[in-house]
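Hi Prof. W.,

I finally got the Urease accessory protein UreD prediction working! I wasn't sure whether to trim anything, so I left the full sequence exactly as given:
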Amino acid sequence: MDPVTVRGTPFAMVLCTRPSKTKGIATRSEDGPITHQADITPHGFSDQPRARGTVHLSTKRTDVGTVLDRFRQTGSLKCLFPGRRGSALDAVVLNTAGGVTGGDQFDFSAQAAPGTTLTLTTQACERAYKAQPGEIGKITNRLRIDAGARINWLPQETILFNGSALHRRLKVDLSKGASLLMVEPVVFGRPAMGEDVTDLHFRDRIEIRREGVPLFIDAMALTGNARDHLAKPFIAGGAGAMALVVLIANNAETHLSPLQTTLPATGGVSLLQEDVLVMRLLAEDSFALRHTLLPLLQRLNGAPLPRCWKI
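And this is what came out:
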Protein backbone atom coordinates (compact mmCIF):
# COMPACT_ATOMS: atom_id res chain seq x y z
CA MET A 1 0.00 0.00 0.00
CA ASP A 2 1.34 3.40 -0.93
CA PRO A 3 1.95 5.83 1.90
CA VAL A 4 -0.22 8.97 2.30
CA THR A 5 1.42 12.23 3.35
CA VAL A 6 -0.62 14.51 5.62
CA ARG A 7 0.56 18.01 6.49
CA GLY A 8 -1.04 19.68 9.51
CA THR A 9 1.64 22.37 9.84
CA PRO A 10 4.89 23.06 8.01
CA PHE A 11 6.62 21.09 10.75
CA ALA A 12 4.35 18.02 11.05
CA MET A 13 4.08 15.00 8.76
CA VAL A 14 2.02 11.87 9.28
CA LEU A 15 2.32 8.74 7.10
CA CYS A 16 -0.67 6.41 7.06
CA THR A 17 -0.25 3.02 5.36
CA ARG A 18 -3.48 1.43 6.56
CA PRO A 19 -6.89 2.48 7.79
CA SER A 20 -6.81 4.33 11.13
CA LYS A 21 -9.48 4.99 13.72
CA THR A 22 -7.44 7.71 15.41
CA LYS A 23 -9.59 10.81 15.77
CA GLY A 24 -8.34 13.88 13.92
CA ILE A 25 -5.82 12.10 11.67
CA ALA A 26 -6.33 12.13 7.93
CA THR A 27 -6.87 8.55 6.80
CA ARG A 28 -7.90 6.56 3.80
CA SER A 29 -9.13 3.05 3.36
CA GLU A 30 -7.60 0.73 0.83
CA ASP A 31 -10.13 1.81 -1.80
CA GLY A 32 -11.29 5.24 -0.53
CA PRO A 33 -9.92 8.80 -0.51
CA ILE A 34 -8.70 10.83 2.45
CA THR A 35 -11.75 11.62 4.58
CA HIS A 36 -10.55 14.59 6.68
CA GLN A 37 -7.40 16.33 7.89
CA ALA A 38 -6.57 17.29 11.43
CA ASP A 39 -5.84 20.89 12.42
CA ILE A 40 -2.74 20.45 14.55
CA THR A 41 -1.53 24.05 14.26
CA PRO A 42 -0.29 25.15 17.71
CA HIS A 43 -2.56 27.73 19.32
CA GLY A 44 -0.99 31.19 19.38
CA PHE A 45 1.52 30.23 16.70
CA SER A 46 3.22 33.28 15.12
CA ASP A 47 5.11 33.41 11.87
CA GLN A 48 7.83 35.53 13.49
CA PRO A 49 9.35 35.44 16.99
CA ARG A 50 8.74 38.49 19.15
CA ALA A 51 11.17 39.99 21.66
CA ARG A 52 10.01 41.01 25.13
CA GLY A 53 12.00 42.60 27.89
CA THR A 54 11.59 44.50 31.15
CA VAL A 55 14.00 46.13 33.56
CA HIS A 56 13.22 47.87 36.83
CA LEU A 57 15.80 49.31 39.17
CA SER A 58 15.98 51.71 42.08
CA THR A 59 18.78 53.34 44.05
CA LYS A 60 19.63 54.14 47.63
CA ARG A 61 22.28 56.23 49.33
CA THR A 62 25.06 54.74 51.48
CA ASP A 63 28.41 55.90 52.85
CA VAL A 64 30.08 55.18 49.49
CA GLY A 65 27.45 57.08 47.51
CA THR A 66 24.67 55.83 45.26
CA VAL A 67 24.19 52.06 45.12
CA LEU A 68 21.64 49.68 43.73
CA ASP A 69 18.61 49.06 45.92
CA ARG A 70 16.18 46.91 43.94
CA PHE A 71 16.72 45.33 40.54
CA ARG A 72 14.70 43.06 38.30
CA GLN A 73 15.19 42.12 34.65
CA THR A 74 13.40 39.70 32.34
CA GLY A 75 13.54 38.70 28.70
CA SER A 76 15.70 40.43 26.12
CA LEU A 77 16.27 43.65 28.08
CA LYS A 78 19.30 43.57 30.36
CA CYS A 79 21.26 46.00 32.53
CA LEU A 80 24.96 46.09 33.35
CA PHE A 81 26.75 48.09 36.03
CA PRO A 82 30.29 49.17 35.12
CA GLY A 83 32.94 50.21 37.60
CA ARG A 84 32.10 53.11 39.87
CA ARG A 85 33.00 56.66 38.85
CA GLY A 86 32.84 58.78 41.97
CA SER A 87 29.71 58.63 44.13
CA ALA A 88 27.20 58.21 41.28
CA LEU A 89 25.83 54.91 39.95
CA ASP A 90 26.13 54.11 36.23
CA ALA A 91 23.81 51.62 34.53
CA VAL A 92 24.06 50.41 30.92
CA VAL A 93 20.91 49.10 29.25
CA LEU A 94 21.27 46.60 26.42
CA ASN A 95 18.84 44.84 24.13
CA THR A 96 20.06 41.29 23.57
CA ALA A 97 17.55 40.87 20.73
CA GLY A 98 19.84 43.06 18.64
CA GLY A 99 17.22 45.66 17.74
CA VAL A 100 13.51 46.35 17.58
CA THR A 101 11.03 45.20 14.97
CA GLY A 102 7.25 45.01 14.71
CA GLY A 103 5.62 43.29 17.67
CA ASP A 104 8.58 43.69 20.05
CA GLN A 105 7.89 45.27 23.45
CA PHE A 106 10.43 46.68 25.89
CA ASP A 107 9.69 48.36 29.23
CA PHE A 108 12.26 50.11 31.40
CA SER A 109 11.70 51.91 34.70
CA ALA A 110 14.04 53.45 37.26
CA GLN A 111 13.68 55.36 40.50
CA ALA A 112 16.35 57.55 42.07
CA ALA A 113 15.97 57.83 45.84
CA PRO A 114 16.59 61.12 47.69
CA GLY A 115 20.20 62.29 47.49
CA THR A 116 21.27 59.79 44.82
CA THR A 117 22.64 60.24 41.30
CA LEU A 118 21.92 57.71 38.57
CA THR A 119 23.35 57.83 35.04
CA LEU A 120 21.58 55.65 32.48
CA THR A 121 22.90 54.94 29.00
CA THR A 122 22.80 52.20 26.36
CA GLN A 123 25.53 49.82 25.28
CA ALA A 124 25.15 50.86 21.63
CA CYS A 125 22.74 52.56 19.27
CA GLU A 126 19.26 51.09 19.31
CA ARG A 127 18.11 49.95 15.86
CA ALA A 128 14.54 49.83 14.60
CA TYR A 129 14.38 47.37 11.71
CA LYS A 130 11.79 46.79 9.02
CA ALA A 131 8.53 45.59 10.50
CA GLN A 132 5.92 43.20 9.18
CA PRO A 133 2.77 44.93 7.84
CA GLY A 134 0.47 46.03 10.64
CA GLU A 135 2.97 45.31 13.42
CA ILE A 136 4.63 47.94 15.61
CA GLY A 137 7.52 47.78 18.06
CA LYS A 138 6.99 49.53 21.40
CA ILE A 139 9.50 51.01 23.84
CA THR A 140 8.26 52.49 27.13
CA ASN A 141 10.61 54.20 29.60
CA ARG A 142 9.59 55.57 33.00
CA LEU A 143 11.77 57.57 35.39
CA ARG A 144 10.98 58.64 38.94
CA ILE A 145 13.31 61.18 40.58
CA ASP A 146 12.87 61.90 44.28
CA ALA A 147 13.77 65.11 46.09
CA GLY A 148 17.47 65.94 45.95
CA ALA A 149 18.14 63.16 43.43
CA ARG A 150 19.31 63.37 39.83
CA ILE A 151 18.99 61.11 36.80
CA ASN A 152 21.11 61.53 33.70
CA TRP A 153 19.16 59.85 30.89
CA LEU A 154 21.78 59.50 28.16
CA PRO A 155 20.84 56.79 25.65
CA GLN A 156 22.81 56.60 22.43
CA GLU A 157 21.13 57.17 19.08
CA THR A 158 18.05 55.32 17.89
CA ILE A 159 18.53 54.46 14.19
CA LEU A 160 15.31 54.17 12.19
CA PHE A 161 15.73 51.93 9.16
CA ASN A 162 13.53 52.00 6.10
CA GLY A 163 10.26 50.17 6.73
CA SER A 164 10.53 50.37 10.52
CA ALA A 165 7.49 50.91 12.75
CA LEU A 166 8.17 52.11 16.28
CA HIS A 167 6.18 53.73 19.08
CA ARG A 168 8.36 55.13 21.85
CA ARG A 169 7.41 56.88 25.08
CA LEU A 170 9.36 58.46 27.93
CA LYS A 171 7.61 59.55 31.13
CA VAL A 172 9.53 61.41 33.85
CA ASP A 173 8.09 62.31 37.26
CA LEU A 174 10.15 64.68 39.41
CA SER A 175 9.72 65.63 43.03
CA LYS A 176 10.45 69.17 44.14
CA GLY A 177 14.21 69.70 44.18
CA ALA A 178 14.94 66.82 41.78
CA SER A 179 17.20 67.23 38.72
CA LEU A 180 17.23 65.72 35.25
CA LEU A 181 19.50 65.73 32.22
CA MET A 182 18.07 63.87 29.24
CA VAL A 183 18.93 63.44 25.58
CA GLU A 184 17.05 61.61 22.85
CA PRO A 185 19.05 61.41 19.59
CA VAL A 186 17.40 59.96 16.46
CA VAL A 187 19.05 59.01 13.16
CA PHE A 188 17.11 58.36 9.96
CA GLY A 189 18.76 55.51 8.10
CA ARG A 190 22.38 55.27 7.03
CA PRO A 191 23.17 57.65 4.17
CA ALA A 192 26.73 56.29 3.95
CA MET A 193 25.16 52.99 2.89
CA GLY A 194 22.94 54.69 0.33
CA GLU A 195 19.82 54.11 2.40
CA ASP A 196 16.82 56.43 2.07
CA VAL A 197 14.01 56.28 4.62
CA THR A 198 10.99 56.46 2.33
CA ASP A 199 8.73 54.19 4.39
CA LEU A 200 8.54 54.92 8.10
CA HIS A 201 6.09 54.82 10.97
CA PHE A 202 7.51 56.54 14.05
CA ARG A 203 5.76 58.04 17.06
CA ASP A 204 7.66 59.51 19.97
CA ARG A 205 6.24 61.17 23.07
CA ILE A 206 8.11 62.69 26.02
CA GLU A 207 6.32 63.83 29.17
CA ILE A 208 8.13 65.51 32.04
CA ARG A 209 6.16 66.50 35.14
CA ARG A 210 7.08 67.93 38.52
CA GLU A 211 4.74 67.17 41.39
CA GLY A 212 2.16 66.24 38.73
CA VAL A 213 2.44 69.58 36.92
CA PRO A 214 3.63 69.40 33.27
CA LEU A 215 7.05 70.99 32.71
CA PHE A 216 7.71 69.78 29.17
CA ILE A 217 5.68 67.66 26.76
CA ASP A 218 6.91 66.89 23.27
CA ALA A 219 5.42 64.64 20.61
CA MET A 220 6.54 63.68 17.12
CA ALA A 221 4.85 61.54 14.48
CA LEU A 222 6.33 60.62 11.11
CA THR A 223 4.51 58.32 8.74
CA GLY A 224 5.36 57.64 5.11
CA ASN A 225 8.25 59.19 3.19
CA ALA A 226 10.41 60.61 5.97
CA ARG A 227 13.19 61.63 3.55
CA ASP A 228 10.96 64.02 1.60
CA HIS A 229 9.32 65.36 4.75
CA LEU A 230 12.64 66.10 6.46
CA ALA A 231 13.92 67.76 3.29
CA LYS A 232 11.41 70.60 3.63
CA PRO A 233 13.19 73.82 4.66
CA PHE A 234 10.87 74.56 7.59
CA ILE A 235 10.92 70.99 8.88
CA ALA A 236 14.54 69.79 8.98
CA GLY A 237 16.20 71.23 5.87
CA GLY A 238 17.40 67.80 4.74
CA ALA A 239 18.86 66.75 8.10
CA GLY A 240 19.34 63.02 8.65
CA ALA A 241 19.80 63.18 12.42
CA MET A 242 18.37 65.16 15.32
CA ALA A 243 18.52 65.37 19.09
CA LEU A 244 16.45 66.80 21.91
CA VAL A 245 18.18 67.80 25.15
CA VAL A 246 16.42 68.85 28.36
CA LEU A 247 18.12 70.02 31.55
CA ILE A 248 16.12 70.59 34.73
CA ALA A 249 18.42 71.87 37.45
CA ASN A 250 18.97 74.86 39.69
CA ASN A 251 21.88 76.03 37.49
CA ALA A 252 20.10 75.58 34.15
CA GLU A 253 20.02 79.31 33.47
CA THR A 254 23.80 79.61 33.71
CA HIS A 255 24.18 77.38 30.63
CA LEU A 256 21.96 79.43 28.34
CA SER A 257 24.42 82.08 27.16
CA PRO A 258 27.40 79.74 26.62
CA LEU A 259 25.24 77.35 24.60
CA GLN A 260 23.86 80.14 22.45
CA THR A 261 27.36 81.14 21.43
CA THR A 262 28.59 77.62 20.67
CA LEU A 263 25.58 76.04 18.95
CA PRO A 264 25.70 75.71 15.13
CA ALA A 265 23.11 77.35 12.91
CA THR A 266 21.11 74.11 12.97
CA GLY A 267 20.70 74.20 16.75
CA GLY A 268 18.66 76.25 19.19
CA VAL A 269 18.30 76.56 22.95
CA SER A 270 15.59 78.13 25.13
CA LEU A 271 14.93 78.66 28.82
CA LEU A 272 11.33 77.66 29.51
CA GLN A 273 11.69 78.42 33.21
CA GLU A 274 14.67 79.53 35.23
CA ASP A 275 15.50 75.88 35.90
CA VAL A 276 14.23 74.28 32.66
CA LEU A 277 16.53 74.41 29.62
CA VAL A 278 15.56 72.87 26.26
CA MET A 279 17.88 72.42 23.28
CA ARG A 280 17.31 70.97 19.79
CA LEU A 281 19.91 69.98 17.24
CA LEU A 282 19.76 69.02 13.56
CA ALA A 283 22.67 67.46 11.70
CA GLU A 284 23.45 65.91 8.35
CA ASP A 285 24.16 62.49 9.86
CA SER A 286 25.03 60.77 13.11
CA PHE A 287 28.73 61.66 12.87
CA ALA A 288 28.00 65.37 12.58
CA LEU A 289 25.41 65.12 15.36
CA ARG A 290 27.87 63.56 17.78
CA HIS A 291 30.55 66.08 16.91
CA THR A 292 28.28 68.82 18.23
CA LEU A 293 26.36 66.90 20.88
CA LEU A 294 29.13 65.28 22.92
CA PRO A 295 30.87 68.41 24.24
CA LEU A 296 27.50 70.00 25.02
CA LEU A 297 26.32 66.98 26.98
CA GLN A 298 29.59 66.83 28.89
CA ARG A 299 29.19 70.47 29.83
CA LEU A 300 25.62 69.98 31.04
CA ASN A 301 26.53 66.76 32.83
CA GLY A 302 29.41 68.38 34.67
CA ALA A 303 31.36 65.13 34.33
CA PRO A 304 32.71 62.86 31.59
CA LEU A 305 30.09 60.95 29.66
CA PRO A 306 29.77 57.17 30.07
CA ARG A 307 32.45 55.27 28.15
CA CYS A 308 29.84 53.70 25.87
CA TRP A 309 29.48 57.07 24.15
CA LYS A 310 33.17 57.08 23.21
CA ILE A 311 33.54 53.57 21.80
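The chain has two domains: 1-45, 52-310. Does that look reasonable to you?

Thanks,
D.
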